[in-house]
Task: inverse folding
């Protein structure tokens, strides 16, 4: 009974929003467009994004700006969800939102490191909203990375970044960014304690799936491209263990060949993502995997938090796909190649 | 008692006075700004062509919106930190009114105070960290306490390095899981919130590699001072002593910091207020327009605030031009004047109840007084009781004084008084009708009289409502609604006719023959039916029916039926006043019967008290809501639209 009260309204909303998402036909229609202009026109006239694009002059808009517009649209949808919740779930949604705030924080820190101006950085930020835990204007006004980290004092990020402030360098930035990502997972994990068993299970599995995929991507790239020592690889993983057990995670860090890597993966659901050793396709398969997983949850239509989170993930993938399609069209990539970067298969 | 007259004031002056003027306006809080550029474009902003104004007039050609580009986000954060730091002092704020108008002075003063604060604060933080490190060292020594080697031997080992690290809890798990691959001996010595402190012994040859691994796990190395000698157990004592010294130093600095904040208490307050003023004046500035030489501000100022404005302007020695206009002189119809209600103190709290329905528009009659009187009367009649009224009065008083809920408290107080008065008339104290005699009537003994009185009461209110509605419509020159609408004159005449007819039937005294009555009613119903064409005929419009004849007649014939129904139901609706007066007694009778049934004196008193609490809370709430319903639905729908915008001047809240 309790969960019906909490979730029925938002789940109905989610159902309605799912109806607005791109169908496979619409994807194909977009992919079949000849150039950027016609793609944007299709997007505006044939899909639910018309509402958003109404106010812009699509002839003049810059591709990069459009990306920000789409991202901001995602965030605005996201932050409206908070109105459907109170108490623990309100906090949970806020905690999930930290993820996007972290993305912005990374942009700010990197921008400051590269010496970009306040306006330049501000233009790229997407997650300014009522859910923020940090003061954007203040951080933007600060001069360099050290000051930004000092300026985060009192926020949830300070503790992790405190001792990284003095080692700012290209490599240091990587550590700062990884630490920020960890903050997200730690915060969600902390929030779990306050949920009832059913929802705890749901949130845990969704978060862990994400962690697993990120870990795999990290280890794969670290092995194939960067030759990072196994101990470091392991230290930068999100040590969670879900479908990919903790032991296997460690084993993966210490494998010598891709064959071993695939062998370990073969007993997990993630085998399909890495089975063909073609790094270009991994991202597509990862998106497809996630889409399949979350669409299944959406079909199950349970009265718990799973609907909301799944929708937000699937919707995110859709936005990424659209951005990807727009990019392809802008740089005139052939449709047959282009489809490799989108989470649909012909 | 009414709605305050508004003036559209346009101000023009030299740009050097801009900052000062906007700040003074914000300080007085007398102006609600509107976009000056919009005003100028709509040609409401007219300067007389004369030699005095010639410069301003020439400049108008180059006009543009004023861009407010001051940036002080960092300063705001600094202020916030300072305010946070001194929040704990709770010093009574005696604001000495010293505002800093100049932006640069303000920034300078703030940075002076903040820098001094920051020096102390940083020192404090450093000491705290050192103290923490010493504490961690102590913990590590605790672990080594059974080692009987001198400390220098441990720290200067030839082939091994000892080091102390602090690591986030979740990373410690990873290190533990990977012990076999890390080339050092690790022992965790202490666990604090979210962090683990561990001690590591690493072969010197592998230090670089290990260091890298630890770094990737975000381990922070805790420096261990190397001047210690003796066995760990003794060193631990030394460290403890040093910790105490540090602690004292820290307390000292903390005291200095507090003293500094205390001394600068007013200073910081002033700076904070000055920034607040800067922000608020920014709101006015953002709606202003300017050229290189001049600025242009437009805004609404209530008539009673004009004096304040003149006082401000007089300090500029006539350097600022003003153009003042009445709302009806404004050509731009898109700008609606805001509404400021002025009511006597007695009626003031009821403004919030009007506000819940809607703010009256500028040209409407303010219904607050009417609502206040009728609502208080109705509430008292429904909830007449000396004792319970007194409770309400007290509750209102507490709400107002203790919780600063001025409006709600004020309403409660007035309702309480009304309840007491009616309590005397009904002779009821805490439900009991035996304590005092009834001055007027005992509701339960005269049920019919009470109900009929309630309806008569209601008829009176409705007639008043009609009168107000007609005046409102005519003020707005809305002929259709005012003369022929069901809330207008036609409806009014119909209603009066119906009342007279009913009275004459009741008293069996036929005033007019039936046929005349029928003609009378049909005539007014026809007026209501044909209200749009009639109104358009009077106004001389060419089109009689705005949305087509067929649609119009279907709609308006239903309206006629509705008129008949709603007049009947609206009137009967007032029966509830009487019904609740009876209900009030009835509820208490039930409780007193229960109290009588128990033979135990204590229990029966308990039941009576409980009964009174329930009556006050439950019935009080119901009566409160029913009264509101009568006001909003039966009365407001007759005469009130509430489509206005409240007057919200830009004003600084000084702390």
Result:
């Amino acid at each position: 009974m309790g969960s019906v009260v909490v979730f029925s309204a938002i789940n109905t909303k989610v159902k309605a929003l799912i109806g607005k998402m791109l169908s496979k036909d619409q994807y194909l229609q977009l992919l079949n467009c000849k150039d950027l202009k016609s793609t944007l026109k299709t997007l505006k006239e044939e899909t639910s994004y018309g509402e958003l694009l109404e106010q812009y002059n699509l002839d003049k808009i810059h591709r990069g700006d459009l990306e920000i517009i789409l991202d901001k649209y995602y965030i605005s949808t996201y932050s409206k969800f908070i109105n459907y919740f109170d108490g623990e779930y309100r906090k949970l949604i806020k905690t999930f939102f930290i993820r996007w705030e972290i993305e912005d924080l990374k942009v700010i820190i990197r921008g400051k490191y590269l010496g970009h101006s306040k306006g330049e950085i501000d233009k790229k930020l997407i997650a300014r909203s009522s859910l923020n835990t940090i003061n954007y204007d203040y951080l933007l006004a600060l001069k360099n990375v050290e000051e930004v980290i000092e300026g985060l004092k009192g926020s949830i990020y300070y503790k992790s970044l405190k001792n990284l402030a003095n080692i700012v360098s290209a490599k240091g930035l990587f550590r700062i960014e990884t630490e920020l990502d960890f903050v997200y997972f730690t915060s969600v994990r902390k929030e779990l304690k306050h949920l009832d068993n059913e929802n705890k299970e749901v949130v845990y599995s969704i978060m862990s799936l994400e962690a697993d995929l990120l870990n795999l991507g990290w280890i794969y790239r670290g092995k194939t491209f960067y030759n990072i020592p196994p101990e470091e690889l392991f230290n930068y993983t999100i040590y969670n263990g879900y479908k990919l057990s903790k032991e296997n995670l460690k084993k993966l860090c210490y494998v010598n060949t891709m064959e071993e890597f695939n062998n370990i993966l073969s007993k997990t659901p993630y085998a399909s993502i890495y089975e063909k050793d073609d790094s270009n396709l991994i991202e597509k398969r990862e998106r497809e995997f996630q889409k399949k997983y979350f669409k299944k949850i959406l079909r199950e239509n349970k009265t718990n938090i799973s609907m909301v989170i799944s929708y937000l993930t699937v919707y995110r993938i859709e936005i990424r796909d659209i951005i990807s399609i727009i990019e392809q069209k802008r740089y005139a990539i052939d449709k047959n190649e282009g489809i490799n970067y989108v989470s649909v298969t012909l | 008692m009414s709605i305050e007259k508004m003036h559209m004031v346009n101000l023009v002056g030299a740009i050097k006075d801009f900052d000062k003027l906007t700040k003074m306006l914000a300080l007085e809080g007398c102006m609600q700004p509107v976009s000056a550029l919009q005003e100028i474009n709509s040609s409401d902003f007219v300067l007389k062509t004369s030699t005095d104004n010639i410069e301003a007039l020439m400049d108008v050609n180059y006009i543009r919106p004023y861009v407010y580009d001051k940036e002080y986000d960092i300063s705001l954060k600094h202020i916030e930190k300072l305010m946070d730091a001194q929040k704990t002092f709770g010093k009574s704020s005696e604001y000495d009114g010293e505002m800093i108008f100049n932006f640069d002075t303000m920034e300078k003063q703030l940075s002076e105070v903040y820098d001094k604060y920051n020096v102390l604060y940083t020192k404090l933080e450093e000491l705290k960290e050192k103290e923490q490190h010493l504490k961690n060292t102590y913990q590590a020594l605790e672990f080594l306490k059974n080692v009987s080697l001198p400390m220098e031997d441990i720290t200067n080992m030839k082939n091994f390095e000892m080091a102390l690290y602090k690591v986030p809890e979740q990373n410690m798990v990873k290190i533990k899981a990977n012990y076999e691959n890390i080339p050092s001996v690790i022992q965790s010595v202490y666990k604090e919130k979210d962090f683990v402190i561990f001690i590591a012994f690493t072969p010197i040859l592998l230090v670089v590699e290990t260091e890298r691994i630890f770094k990737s796990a975000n381990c922070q190395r805790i420096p261990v001072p190397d001047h210690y000698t003796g066995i760990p157990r003794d060193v631990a004592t030394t460290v403890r002593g040093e910790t105490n010294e540090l602690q004292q130093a820290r307390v000292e600095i903390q005291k200095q910091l507090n003293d500094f904040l205390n001394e600068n208490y007013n200073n910081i307050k002033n700076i904070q207020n000055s920034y607040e003023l800067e922000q608020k004046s920014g709101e006015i500035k953002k709606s202003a327009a300017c050229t290189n030489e001049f600025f242009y501000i437009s805004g609404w100022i209530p008539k009673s605030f004009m004096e304040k404005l003149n006082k401000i302007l007089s300090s500029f020695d006539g350097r600022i031009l003003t153009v003042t206009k009445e709302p009806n002189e404004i050509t731009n119809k898109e700008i609606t004047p805001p509404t400021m209600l002025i009511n006597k103190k007695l009626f003031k709290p009821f403004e919030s109840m009007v506000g819940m329905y809607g703010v009256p528009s500028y040209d409407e009659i303010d219904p607050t007084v009417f609502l206040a009187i009728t609502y208080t009367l109705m509430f008292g009649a429904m909830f007449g009781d000396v004792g319970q009224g007194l409770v309400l009065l007290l509750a209102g008083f507490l709400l107002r004084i203790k919780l600063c809920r001025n409006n709600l408290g004020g309403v409660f107080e007035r309702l309480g008084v009304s309840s007491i008065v009616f309590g005397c008339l009904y002779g009821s104290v805490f439900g009991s009708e035996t304590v005092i005699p009834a001055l007027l009537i005992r509701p339960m003994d005269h049920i019919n009289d009470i109900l009929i009185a309630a309806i008569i009461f209601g008829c009176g209110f409705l007639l008043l409502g009609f009168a107000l509605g007609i005046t409102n419509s005519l003020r707005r020159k809305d002929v259709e609604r005012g003369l022929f609408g069901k809330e207008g004159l036609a409806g009014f005449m119909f209603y009066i006719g119906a009342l007279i007819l009913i009275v004459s039937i009741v008293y069996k005294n036929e005033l007019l023959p039936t046929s005349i009555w029928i003609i009378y009613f049909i005539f007014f119903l026809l007026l209501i039916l044909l209200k749009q064409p009639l109104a358009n005929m009077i106004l001389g419009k060419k089109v009689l029916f705005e949305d087509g004849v067929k649609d119009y007649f279907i709609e308006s014939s239903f309206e006629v039926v509705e008129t008949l129904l709603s007049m009947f139901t609206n009137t009967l609706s007032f029966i509830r006043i009487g019904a609740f007066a009876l209900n009030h007694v009835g509820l208490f009778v039930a409780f007193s019967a229960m109290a009588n049934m128990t033979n135990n004196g204590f229990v029966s008193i308990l039941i009576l008290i409980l009964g009174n609490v329930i009556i006050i809370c439950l019935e009080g709430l119901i009566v409160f809501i029913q009264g509101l319903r009568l006001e909003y639905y039966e009365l407001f729908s007759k005469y009130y639209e509430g489509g206005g915008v409240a007057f919200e001047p830009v004003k600084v809240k000084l702390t």
